[in-house]
Amino acid sequence: MAIRATERQPEPSIRAAYTIEEFCEAYRIHRETVRRMINSGKLKTFKIGRRRLIPVEAAEALKAA
């Protein structure tokens, strides 16, 4: 099946941060484990409004450790 010239391919998203739920799904870690890592300071987060987000750099640093 050919793609018509008028159809646009979605651009890959450039992620700056994960929500806690997205992080849990991507790294296959239980939500409570993530909460413990945040509370102990092992995982850095920031807040925008009521949302707590995990920077991609912090996620990659955790994976590398």
Any overview of this molecule?
- With 65 residues, the protein is an alpha+beta fold.
- It has one domain (17-64).
- It is built from 3 helices and 3 strands, in the order βααββα.
- It has helices at residues 20-27, 31-40, 56-64, and strands at residues 17-19, 46-48, 51-55.
- The chain has a 3-stranded antiparallel sheet.
- The termini are far apart.
- The mean pLDDT is 86.
Put the structure in a nutshell.
42% of the residues lie in helices and 17% in strands.
Integer average pLDDT: 86
Question: What overall form do the CA principal axes indicate?
Answer: globular
Query: N-to-C terminal Cα separation, in Å?
Result: 44 Å
Query: Could you give the order of strands across the largest sheet?
Result: 1-3-2
Strand content: 15-25%
List segments where confidence is low: pLDDT < 50 over at least 5 consecutive residues: none
